[in-house]
Structure formats: structure tokens, C-alpha cells
Write a structure and sequence with these properties.
This protein is mainly alpha-helical. The chain contains eleven helices and no strands. Helix 8 packs antiparallel against helix 10. It comes from Antribacter soli.
């Protein structure tokens, strides 16, 4: 019988998700719309349009969160501190005005992305993939995005509530807990494979949304 030290320790799901989506993540964050927005080459309307797309996506994700809240495994990934829909709605009210619901225009790629979430996230591996992709990104690169939007477009607290987590004073300890919860989901090998593949799909869907936003918003002259 092999000694315990000879038995390979399974790679944590959080690591598999990070490594398995590295290429897709890089492609999404280097999409021209993102680069131009963060370089200050667009205008506030481009950011407002992005916020409108985010509302569609996070509504779908947070509907899935509610469906998993009471589940023995999935409930471990549901944190009220991460809820984004009310914050996005506040941003849209600031960016568009009181009648924002009649002014926003959800792109086809965004509708497809949200439909994908709704069709697969009743299952834990897929839900874990989409929640990981969205929320850990918000707590990491999202904070850099917030600072760039403040710098280039004169935004402050109003309009940037999406990037503010008042109930998470320190992001790193929270992200550590979230990764621990991911790693403790007890997914079997087939479920892990599904989760990684779905996370890759999430990044591809996000990139498609950025592509359509880029077609709608051109750099200022």
C-alpha cells in the first residue's frame, strides 16, 4: 500500500478555475471596448451602457443564487455581501435619470449570456463557474476599473456603486473565504470538468458582450 505522502493531493477547484480560464480571461480584458473605456477614450454613455448590460447579467446570476441558497452545497457560495443588482440599479438611476428602465438597451450578446446563465445555473457546477467568474472579478480587477472610471470620467460614489462593497471592508480575506468555499463544494471529477468548461464559456460570453459594446461606442474624435 502506498504511503499517504505518495497520494497526490487533488488540485483545488479555485486553482483549476483560475488556470483553466487564463486564456479566455486575457482575451476578454484586452477586448478593444475595455481598453478604450479604461484609457478614457470613450465617454460616460459607454460606461452607462456597460452598467445596463451588467444589470441583465447579475439579475440572472442572483436569481440562480436564490435557487441555491437553501442547498447543502450551493448555499455555501451565496453571500448577501456580494449582491450587485440594487447597486447597479442605483448607478443606472444616476447615469440615465429616473426613467432609466425605459432608456437602457440590452444587447443581443448580453441576452444570450443571461439566457445561458438561466439555462444552466440550476446545477451547482455551472452556478459555481458563473458566480466565481463574476464576483471574484468584481473584487479584484473591478477595483482597478473603478479607479480608472473615476480618473477619466469624473465619476465618484454616484454611478460607481457597483464597484463598492460596503459590507466587505477588506477584499483579500473575503476572497480567501470564497475560494475556500469553492474548494469545499465536494464536486466529483466530472462536475469539476463541467465547472471549468462553463467558466471558460462565461468569459467567452463576456467577451462577446464587450465586442458588441465596442461596435456601439467609438472613440471620441
Amino acid at each position: 500500500m502506498a504511503a499517504a505522502a505518495d497520494v497526490p493531493f487533488p488540485t483545488p477547484l479555485s486553482v483549476l478555475l483560475r488556470e483553466g480560464t487564463r486564456a479566455e480571461h486575457r482575451e476578454a480584458e484586452t477586448e478593444s471596448f475595455v481598453e478604450r473605456l479604461l484609457a478614457g477614450e470613450l465617454d460616460v454613455s459607454a460606461y452607462a451602457d456597460l452598467a445596463a448590460q451588467q444589470l441583465e447579467i447579475y439579475t440572472a446570476v442572483e436569481e440562480a443564487s436564490e435557487s441555491h441558497r437553501g442547498d447543502r452545497r450551493g448555499g455555501a457560495l451565496v453571500f448577501d455581501e456580494l449582491t450587485r443588482v440594487p447597486s447597479i440599479e442605483r448607478d443606472l438611476a444616476h447615469l440615465y435619470g429616473a426613467g432609466w428602465r425605459t432608456q437602457i438597451d440590452v444587447l443581443p450578446a448580453t441576452r444570450s449570456y443571461a439566457a445561458r446563465i438561466r439555462s444552466v445555473c440550476g446545477r451547482l457546477p455551472e452556478y459555481a463557474a458563473h458566480a466565481y467568474t463574476r464576483y471574484l472579478g468584481d473584487l479584484s480587477g473591478g477595483q482597478v476599473i473603478r479607479r480608472m472610471l473615476e480618473r477619466h470620467y469624473g465619476l465618484s460614489g454616484d454611478g460607481l456603486a457597483f464597484y463598492t462593497f460596503p459590507d466587505i471592508p477588506k477584499a483579500k480575506p473575503f476572497k480567501d473565504v470564497y475560494r475556500e468555499r469553492l474548494d469545499g463544494l465536494e464536486l466529483d471529477a466530472a462536475e469539476v470538468e463541467v465547472a471549468v468548461a462553463e467558466a471558460q464559456e462565461a468569459f467567452r460570453s463576456n467577451r462577446a458582450m464587450f465586442t458588441e459594446l465596442g461596435e456601439r461606442h467609438r472613440p471620441r474624435a
